[in-house]
């Protein structure tokens, strides 16, 4: 008895490794939150290339952190007819939101200014 039809001939890319972005210090200190939507392409080997910002709110604050994070992501490549293939025009939105601890944090420099 064979296993015909068990393997899918077409499969979307699968994210294997993704570190979160590094929150920019100046944005954390100023209590700024936002998001960045990026477009990118995936190579036959699952690497991210051609990363570009589609939308950023607020503009310019989190762009570099988001681009650097997505460039480091690794994927199991998309498959078409059982063969790895490039995946173009992928999109992801990275949200930058402070935790409750970060919102309530007073840096030593801020504390010195208050005294």
Give a brief rundown of this model:
By secondary structure, this protein is an alpha+beta fold. The chain is 23% helix and 38% strand.
Features:
three-stranded antiparallel β-sheet; alpha+beta; TolA/TonB C-terminal domain; disordered C terminus; 38% strand; elongated; 115 residues; 8 strands; single chain
Topology:
Layout: E1 10-11, E2 14-17, H1 25-29, E3 34-42, E4 48-57, H2 63-71, E5 74-76, E6 78-80, E7 83-85, E8 87-96, H3 100-104, H4 108-114
Antiparallel strand pairs: 1-6, 2-5, 3-4, 3-8, 6-7
Task: State the distance separating the first and last CA atoms.
Answer: 80 Å
Order of helices and strands: EEHEEHEEEEHH
What is the architecture at the second tier of CATH?
A: 2-Layer Sandwich
CATH class: Alpha Beta
Helix tally?
4
| Biggest sheet overview | 3 strands, antiparallel
Number of domains: 1
- In total, the number of strands is 8
Beta content: 35-45%
Amount of helix:
10-25%
SSE class? alpha+beta
Mean pLDDT: 88
Can you identify the CATH superfamily? TonB
Strand order of the largest sheet: 1-6-7
**Unreliable stretches covering 5 or more consecutive residues:** 111-115
Return the CATH topology. Answer: TolA/TonB C-terminal domain
